[in-house]
Amino acid sequence: MVHNSNPKLSVALATYNEEKVLGACLESIKGIADEIVVVDGSSTDRTVEVARSFRAKVIVTDNKPIFHINKQLAIDECKGEWILQLDADEQVTPELSAEIKSIISPAESPTTNHQSLVTNSAYWINRKKMFLGQWIKKGGQYPDPVIRFFKKGKAYLPCKSVHEQMVVDGEIGFLKNPMIHLPTPNFFVYVTKDNRYSTLTALEMKDKNLPLNFCSFFKYVFWEPNRIFFSLYLGHKGFLDGFPGFVFALYSGLHQETAFVKYWEMSKTGNGEVDKDWV
Asked: Rounded CA gap, 14 and 68, in Å?
């Protein structure tokens, strides 16, 4: 990684106990990053040590329930003309690196469309995801586009929901090459992460003061789980991914049911507090 007082590309990450995957992520951007900014949510493993071994600027804070808050903190600390926001379980391929380079340094790439670079404030990047040991091609999981590459000051995260996208001021382009996404190296990690995400969904239900009646019970315990399952498994052809496709569709639907049960329990306790085991 090259350090200078006027970086072209900053890479922003928020981390929490990511020592097993962070090294591969940072290794993948060594050739393009002028600056790495990591906001860590007080990890209890070697995450901070790994980040510093790549000469990253590390800011340690608390682990926010909505992880996007720490992501935005990292973005705000970046000095680069361009910012690439990554998760620790993502990796940039050589092909994607070359494409990003052609945008931040167009003079070095004679094939670059200079006119599009003038108008685009941000770019969508597709993600190639692995689940239960295989690449998932269907079930609505590919191309899985996210806005992650943008000019400084032209995009931000609202920090209201775990599923939100960047808000962009200006035109948005599309990069051709995907990044690699390895969110769940095993099923235990998948269930652990969904436990945290379903708590956030339950809190959103609480903020909306969702009524606890037969209609909401039917919707979130029966209708939504089945609708999501059949949409992913049949509508988006998740069955073509075999058993992993079935499991992904099934547990994606169960997310809503789990969140509703947590919300019901919060409401019945009377204080709305979140159980420490849920996050």
From this structure: 8
Mark whether 146 and 106 lie in a shared domain.
yes
| Alpha-carbon gap, residue 84 to 28, rounded angstroms | 12
Q: Which domain holds residue 245?
A: 187-278
Number of DSSP helices (H) and strands (E) in the chain, helices first: 9, 13
Residue 55: pLDDT over 60: yes
Tokens at 146, concatenated: 């996210």
Ramachandran quadrant class, 124 (left: phi over 0; alpha: psi -120 to 50; beta: rest): beta
In tens, the pLDDT along 199-249 reads 989 999 999 999 999 999 999 999 999 999 999 999 999 999 999 999 999
Q: Are 167 and 204 in contact (CB under 8 A)?
A: no
Decide the pairing of beta strands 167-168 and 90-91.
Answer: unpaired
